[in-house]
Amino acid sequence: MAKQDVRRRKANNLNQDVVAAAIHRAEQVEAEFYGHQPVLEEMQGSLQQIVQQLQQQGQQLQQLQDQLLECFSKSQNAAVADNTDLIKSLLRPSPEGFPETLQDLKQLDARRVSRLLRAHGLPVDGTPQTKRRRLALHLGLRASLF
Fold first, then answer.
1. Residue 143: which residues within 8 A CB-CB, separation 6 or more?
2. How much is the pTM?
3. Residue 121: other Cβ atoms inside 10 A
């Protein structure tokens, strides 16, 4: 029985040594982690700033793309000379009821032209002819056509 007691004590001592070593290592890892925490927090803050900057740049890029599309459409509309020539919308997607040709624009009724003016953020007051002219000029069509 004495040999078994000695073995048990040795096993217990060995287990205690292993547990003590594991606790010591865990304390070292914890100390290393907390030592790096300020750096990790700084990196997280920097990453958030980068994400915000990318979102802002994405919005700016979308605005530039919209402006470029508007300029392109207006330049094409400036070349319209005949009633059958196609006209381009400045908005994507085109508003419902947007006329395809100059003739279609000239024939818009007051309700439809008012809806298109609102879609473009323009005033809706005036006679139907005044409204059509306002929309045409906004689209880049030449004033001499109206």
1. 133, 137
2. 0.62
3. 8
